[in-house]
Each structure stands twice: as C-alpha cells, then as structure tokens.
From TrEMBL, chains A, B:
Gene3D superfamilies: Jelly Rolls. Residues 31-114 form the Cyclic nucleotide-binding domain. InterPro entries: cNMP-bd_dom, cNMP-bd_dom_sf, RmlC-like_jellyroll. This is Crp/Fnr family transcriptional regulator.
Length: 188, 188
DNA sequence: CAATTTATTTAACAAATGATAAAAAATGAA
DNA sequence: TTCATTTTTTATCATTTGTTAAATAAATTG
C-alpha cells in the first residue's frame, strides 16, 4: 500500500490518527486485465486508488470508444459525476493490465468528511488537485496542437506511450488514429 | 449580497454561525467596465463572487486574446492555479460591464478552512462543483462540434450571447471569428 | 511454426477550419 | 447627425484533419 499511502500524503498531510483511520477504510482488490472497474451505466459508489497497474477511462460514441484519461500507479480512478453528484458518469474505466487497487466507499468517505476536520481538508485538497489536472487538460486541448500534445505525452508519460496501443492514444489526444500516424511519421 | 449569499448556500448549506462568520470576511468592491480584476502576471490573493455584472477570463496568445470563461451574477472569479498553488495563473479576468463583486482573501479562507469543519466541507464542495464544470467544458470541447457548442450557448447562456461581442464568443468556443460567422449564417 | 487476428501505416479524396483581405454593418464620439 | 472606429460578415485560397479503404506489420492462437 506504499504507493497509495504516499499519494495520500502528497495530497494533504494528515495527522497520524486520522491517517490511520482513513487507511483503515480502504479495501484491497485485485483485478485482471480488461476488467471494467467503473461503468458509465451505473452510479459508482467507490473511489479506487491504483497501487499497481494501468487504467483507461473512455466514452462510448457512435464512432467507437474514445479515451479520456490514463492512470498509472498513484493515480485515482473515479467518475466525478458519479461520486460528487450520485449520477451515472460520462465514462467507463477499465484496467489495461492486471492491477492492484485499493478502494474506499462513498459512504465511508462522507462519514469521515463529516466528522474529521483534517480529512475534510484532505478531500478539499484532493478535489482542488483534480481540478487543476482537469483544467490543464482543458487548456492543452484548447491551446495546443495535436502534435504538441503528442510531444508532451512522449515527454511526460513515456510509460503510457509504451504500454498503451496507439488507437487509444489517438482518441486521448482528440484525433483519429490515422492523424496520429501522420504526426508520428512527420516526426522522423 | 443576496445573489452571492444564495450561491454560497447552494454550494453547501452552512449552519447559521459559520455562515455569518464566513460572510463577515467578505468585502464589497465596485469595479468599472474594463477593469482587470485578476492578472495572469500576478499571484492573486482573492476569490471574487459576482453580485452583479459580467466577467470574462482570457489568455494572451501570439494570435491575440482568447477567452476561456464567462461569468455572470452568482459566478465566481478566481484563478485556480493562483489560488490553490500560489502560482501565477493562466488567465487574466476583466469585467465587461460595471460590476459589483464581493471578495474574500486567501488567508482568511485558509484560516476558516483550518478551524471550522463545515467551512472546510464547503470548500470541498466548492472545488468539487468547479471540477464538474471544468470537466463539462473539457467534454464539450472533446466530444462536441463547434456548431453544437454554439447551439448550447444559445440555449444555456443567452444572456452572454447578447452581452458579449462575437470575437470573444468565438475564441471561447475554440474557433476563429470567421468560423463562427460561418456557423451563424449556415443556421438561417 | 503457420494461420489468423489485431494494430499500424499509407494513400486518395472529402470536409472543416484557418488565414488573409475586403466589404458591410454597427457603435461611439464630436 | 456625421465621421471615425470597431465589429461582423463574406469571399478566396491554403492547411489541417477526417473518412474510407487497402497494405503492411505485429501479436496471438492453435
């Protein structure tokens, strides 16, 4: 649980008592490659932390699946809509390799938020951090070209590039696979 | 202060004591049309709530200003990067009409977060809500065409369409003004 | 290993959007 | 109002990206 424990500390450092309380609410699950952890059809009642493995969030469209997010060890799997508003979310999330996850239920988390100030502030910092990441994605999409976004991916997430097929990468970048292939060949 | 007071309640209902404490930290400012409330150059130490008026966030690029957000009464003016990470943000924010704002300083807010559980949870809900809005923007940009985004704007924010010039709208939609003009003429 | 499936690249054409320039319309100031 | 400025629309051409289909390469399975 070390990866996740570090991740939790990184978001907001909890006093030992609260940290322990928080961790005690987590439950380990081992999932096989291809498992759909979160389904767009359903309201999801857990937040998952990735201890080991890699995950992909995607939306089903008329033109097939389109990837909206990749997560590696230390990443958090959740549907914001599901978890914050109790609605079915936009996305489904699958693991692309056999993975080890730890999850905490919505109701446990709510209870902790309502009783423990440090944990409420942890939740706030968590939301703020995810907000910054989402804003970053938005800015990239709005202000950078597909080529630049691809180069950023090479630079900042080489692991993903190596472990994930290009069709998923292309839709993540907001372009077709053909277009990505053109970008790749232009770069040589 | 009624618009803002309602907005605060909408995010998360505070007990009367905390609500009053929270409100007591706000300060009213009246700003003239064209005032730059938040500058991309600086670290901004306030969050502003719009009681009356309309605002626009934009980034300076090599091709001129590009709008990233519009806010009306009840909206919140802040740079996430500035406020959450104490860094200069991406955007500058100006008011497009004479406006009435209420602001609370970063340090006051931090203090309230650290001492009052309900306010910490208010802050969490606020971040969660802004996260959902940002995610929505991202999804729109990624999954909908410029034409659809324009139609959504007509449907959901007719006020903005009426009060803001089309150049700003176009860059908000992520297209050129020429392209927006084409979309508008195709619709007749 | 060969056979089959899946993933990736390439090519040709269509559609959408950008860039630039000019015209038309709207706005604001004297 | 009239003139000057700003905003919006229109037109033309270049560029980018999408679409479809086929070819190549890689991975998987029996």
């Amino acid at each position: 649980m070390t990866v996740i424990s570090n991740k939790i500390d990184e978001i907001f450092l909890l006093p030992p008592t609260e940290k322990q309380l928080f961790l005690s609410r987590f439950e380990r699950i081992d999932v096989l490659k291809g498992t759909i952890v979160v389904s767009a059809e359903k309201i999801e009642r857990y937040v998952y932390f990735i201890e080991e493995g890699i995950a992909r969030a995607f939306r089903e469209t008329d033109k097939g699946q389109r990837t909206i997010w990749f997560g590696e060890a230390g990443g958090v799997i959740l549907s914001f809509l599901s978890f914050f508003k109790n609605q079915p979310g936009y996305e489904s999330i699958e693991v692309l390799e056999d993975s080890v996850l730890y999850r905490i239920s919505s109701s446990h988390l709510q209870e902790l938020y309502n009783l423990h100030l440090p944990i409420a502030n942890w939740g706030r910092k968590f939301a703020e951090q995810e907000l910054l990441l989402t804003e970053q994605r938005f800015m990239d999409l709005q202000f950078r070209t597909a080529t630049e976004r691809y180069e950023d991916l090479i630079k900042h997430s080489p692991t993903i590039l190596k472990r994930v097929q290009l069709g998923h990468i292309a839709s993540y970048l907001g372009i077709t696979q053909v277009s990505l292939s053109r970008i790749r060949s232009a770069k040589k």
